[in-house]
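Predict the 3D structure for this chain.
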Amino acid sequence: MSKKTQRRRLPKAERRELIELAALDVVAARGYHGATIAEIAERSGVSVPVVYDHFDSKRALHRRLLERTRGELLDMWRVHLAGDEPAEVRIPRALDAWARYVEGHPFAARAFLRDFSGDPEVEADHREVQDQARAALAVILGQEPGVENIAGDAGTQSLEMAAEVMRAGLSGLAVWWSDHPEVPREQIVQTAVNTIWIGFERVRRGEGWAPA
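Done. Predicted structure below.
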């Protein structure tokens, strides 16, 4: 009698990663309400009970996807904005990295940067994670010389306002791009650099507007 090939049991962390990756694809394609735990389980090669071993509910899994995407985007900003190069090198580099991330992660534009779930609890999760992202981005922007000229000072609230302008502008561009995928990434980056960086650079040099 031939020996049956036994399937290797994956470590818990690997199973969880497979579930999250499958969920990112399913939610990006079908939205929160259209995504089912059954399809996520099938795509990740596990059973439905195994998914629930890792996540108590679809909402908990979705919350994890939001937090994962937030963390990856913030890490991207930290890595590509860091360094001793002049800002005119670092900021276009960071915006190009952002565009590459959005291009390669459909969940970012279709679920993280906008929420059409219609579920009050899911919307609350979305707002909370976005608030955390804005606060963290404000800290990153606060390290840039001249940032205090944008909103009149370098206080926490002023930095968060600047971060929100940047976050909301890029979020809107990413959402628009997801509806117009024929536009090349290079053009998206050019648009982002020219609308966000050029104005920021002028303010950094001391040029700006303030109420009389």
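Residues 10 and 16 are 10 Å apart (CA to CA).
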